[in-house]
Write a structure and sequence with these properties.
- By secondary structure, this protein is an alpha+beta fold.
- The protein has 5 helices and 11 strands.
- Helix 3 packs across helix 4 and helix 3 packs across helix 5.
Length: 207
């Protein structure tokens, strides 16, 4: 229904994830349970959404509804389909709290124990197929949200630096699907650029 009713457009960026990997490694040195990459992506997406509230909006027939809080869904594959557990109010939660909630929601999802309020009404969704070796893909928007982020695998690639030297860098492709009725191209591009910048330099999340 979303694919046929919402005019999708797609934006793709390649992200340097060296800092993402090192940040997770440093955090996990002091944590009893390892923080997931999905928790980091959820937190960083929430920070970018706070800066770009139009991306955190919904189409309502002939009006646009702006959301008061950032509710991020994570697409989870099940044997008989797909479900999207939602972490509520991510913008006001810390990384550890988000990771703990994600673990609990994913466990419920895999055991068919999610309540409707735990998987409905996400304002933004992340779909990560990197663990399947998928390099790049486009995802279908999950209503009532107006955007979904498709995340590919982390892969070592040769890159040319500013001095024109070739070096190895771990990269990841992200593709943002947007509903053009709600999110103009420039707005979607600005959001994706900010998210890329935060992933590459987490300090930006504090600005």
């Amino acid at each position: 229904e979303s694919k046929y009713s919402a005019p999708h457009y797609y934006l793709t960026v390649t992200v340097n994830v060296e800092n993402l990997i090192s940040t997770r490694k440093k955090i996990n040195q002091s944590q009893p349970e390892k923080i997931s990459f999905n928790a980091l992506l959820t937190k960083y997406a929430a920070e970018a959404l706070k800066k770009h509230p139009k991306v955190n909006s919904s189409w309502n027939g002939d009006t646009i509804l702006k959301r008061k809080q950032v509710d991020v869904g994570l697409a989870v594959a099940l044997p008989d389909g797909l479900i999207t557990p939602v972490v509520r109010d991510c913008g006001n939660k810390g990384l550890i709290a988000i990771d703990k909630e994600l673990r609990e929601l994913i466990d419920k999802a895999r055991n068919n124990k999610l309540m409707p309020d735990e998987y409905q009404n996400a304002g933004f969704t992340i779909s990560n197929l990197g663990s399947f070796g998928i390099e790049e893909f486009t995802a279908i928007i999950n209503p009532p949200g107006s955007a979904i982020l498709a995340v590919g695998e982390m892969k070592k690639m040769p890159v040319v630096d500013e001095e024109e030297n070739i070096k190895v860098q771990t990269q990841m492709k992200m593709t943002l699907s947007c509903d053009h009725r709600v999110i103009d191209g420039a707005v979607g591009a600005a959001f994706l650029k900010d998210l890329k910048d935060i992933i590459e330099d987490p300090f930006r999340a504090l600005l």
